[in-house]
Amino acid sequence: MTPATHSTLFPQVPESADAVLDGLDPEQREVATALHGPVCVLAGAGTGKTRAITHRIAYGVRAGILQPASVLAVTFTARAAGEMRGRLRQLGAGGVQARTFHSAALRQLQFFWPKAVGGDVPRLLERKIQLVAEAAARCRIRLDRNELRDVTAEIEWSKVTQTVPADYPAAVVKAGREAPRDPAEIGQIYRTYEQLKRDRGAIDFEDVLLLTVGVLQDRHDIAEQVRAQYQHFVVDEYQDVSPLQQRLLDLWLGDRDNLCVVGDASQTIYSFTGATPDHLLNFRTRHPNATVVKLVRDYRSTPQVVHLANALLTQAKGRAAEHRLELISQRDAGPEPAYVEYADEPAEAEGTARRIRDLIASGVPAGEIAVLFRINAQSEVYEQALADAGVPYQLRGAERFFERPEVREAGVKLRGAARFGGNDALLDDAVGLPSEVRAVLSDMGWTSVPPAGSGAVRDRWESLAALVRLAEDFAKARPEATLADLVAELDERASAQHAPTVEGVTLASLHAAKGLEWDAVFLVGLTEGMMPITYAKTDEQIEEERRLLYVGVTRARLHLGLSWSLARSPGGRAVRRASRFLSGLRPGSGAMAGRRTAGTVTGGVERGGAAAGASRRRERRPARCRVCNKTLTDAGEMKLMRCEDCPSEIDEALYERLRDWRAEQAARTRQPAYCVFTDKTLMAISEAVPGTESELAGISGVGRRKLDRYGADVLALCAGEGLVDAPDEPSEGAAKNSSEK
Question: What are 469-488's pLDDT values in tens digits?
């Protein structure tokens, strides 16, 4: 593969261990090279945490410091684990185990069960809800569909918090949890459910963790065998660890400390499942010698989105808020977030669909747009509105891509064509890999034009279209690739659950959107009672709802819409009001929030053993407006060291002289004017009016090279002196010069 055909979807494997570090920012590089002892990475949304930890593993493996088989990386979803395996494979570290907690535990349980217990491992329940329903019936307790789901969730919470049935009522009170039924009834159902499992020789997913913990606690020989296998551990999304998962992690580690954890307390949104950020927040207490790295450079979102996200958390309370990370956008400025109020829910859905259609018409791919809501029941009205607008969509949380029937069938057909393509009439006129794939899939119903409307036919077409696009990208990256090579790539992706993108607007709950990102995000239904949800009563529950909205905001790269409706249906009473979380953020709702609070954590590195709150390396602090002291995230504002709309002390006459001088320089060197100095840099100079070379060098946008070339002229202009004509200079490429602006 040559650079000319290189694809970001199929990147080249780095040539060396050092090449793995290329492109990492200073803090990410600190993560990647901190390979020994406990490491805690506090990573804000969009700061490249997955990039940092996968490059850390790959660098250790490629440098010969870590053996691939001795590394266990664990996370919380099969999708995240699959993405991690895919990235490690692309970095040349394919032998590393990247799994969910449950997957890693199940693998160990299946291997050691005959030795520890004897016989076959009990049957694993795929869905416990049916057995919970039977347990309730045996207890003569009637549950409707929603109650059945909620009681099942209570049983799951009890097990991950290691609460036995008899202790459930007391545990609910202690946790301040609102039970969906009488706690005594739920405890009775829970006890009967456990008995039914034992009678039928079955276990559930929580049992997998409990039984693995039991085996490792009781059998020291097995625990030592596991520890001999795995020497280094990486835990992603550490803020979501439950007490049971932490206990399993402790048993895996033993008395060693080669552990790297990554998390963000401000993204703790699963406490209802037993997750707690306490393990992340207490990491330095448990491991006093830990290296702590803070990632705050946001590469995902524009300054406008980042400012809203930061402002949202300035109003937060509680321990997680005290350790919040203040993000600093690394992107160019974009549009301001749009706040829209609608008369009713159908109007909100139709308005959102129109805005989405306009974005698609302007060039934003449908697959780069998402509509996010608080609960899944809100999706129906948006499905209908998008279908009416002719906009394709997909529901997040549906069947995994590689498990879809049409994708499996396509895999069989492509494998057959790769094996016997010479005798396949479908391929007679096909030239090149993409053409061959289109020919094979056309026999399954793929066409170059999508079918009208929505439903199963459209879903099937979207799956096949995703395979066609994958083949096109694969061929661009590897022009010599054959159909057999593509089939091998699909097999590896299926194994890693590394699915291609399906082209359609994503409809998802805020919880399901965690870990994902889009160019455009619409946060809908932001009313009191929905955000925060009506059953969030305690301060802690309200703060988790705020964090959930924060997660939604930080999914957006460029476009962000926030909307709410005053009534449920057309003609209904307009009794709703916008979410309290938007107060002070949306126009007309009070002063804009955004000031930095005392607990805000900035980026940087703290070495193990440093005094509390101290750092051996100076922490990089966010730029602040010299007028109002607000955090600056826009690159242009940071040049000026003030907000765009704060009062300016610019010397207008000097600014005009500098602009005239810049035009002459640009004409002389035959390059764009901004390659000499940008407007923002000229404004900064005109406001500061530097009198010395060191003062001029301190202005953002004036590097050493430009100081040497233009410094004397600029200082003379600032002093009101005349200039000596300079000889013509040879033209330089604008790209080379623009890198210094």
Answer: 888 888 888 888 888 888 88
Portion of the chain with pLDDT greater than 90, in percent: 38
Beta bridge partners of 505: 393
Using DSSP, state whether 48 is helix, strand or coil. Answer: coil
Q: Is 558 helix (H, G, I), strand (E, B) or coil?
A: strand
Helix (H, G, I), strand (E, B) or coil at 703: coil
- The 3-state DSSP class for residue 279 equals helix
Q: What is the DSSP string of 290-356?
A: -EEEEE-EESSS-HHHHHHHHHHHHT--SHHHHT-B--EE-SPP-PPPEEEEEEEHHHHHHHHHHHH
| Burial 90-123, CB ≥16 within 10 A → b, else e | bbbbbebbbbbbbbbbbebbeebbeebeeeebbe
pLDDT tens sequence across 635-659: 566 667 777 767 777 888 888 899 9
Q: Give backbone dihedrals phi and psi of 10, rounded to 5 degrees, phi first.
A: -130, 70
pLDDT digits (tens, 9 = 90+) for 36-82: 889 999 999 999 999 999 999 999 998 889 899 999 999 988 888 88
pTM above 0.70, yes or no: no
CB contact at 8 A, 494 and 414: no
Residues 6+ apart with CB under 8 A from 137: none
Distance of alpha carbon 712 from alpha carbon 131, whole angstroms: 82
Contacts of 90 (CB under 8 A, 6+ apart): 10, 11, 13
Angstrom distance (rounded) from CA 88 to CA 94: 6
User: How many Å apart are CA 183 and CA 160, to the nearest integer?
Assistant: 17
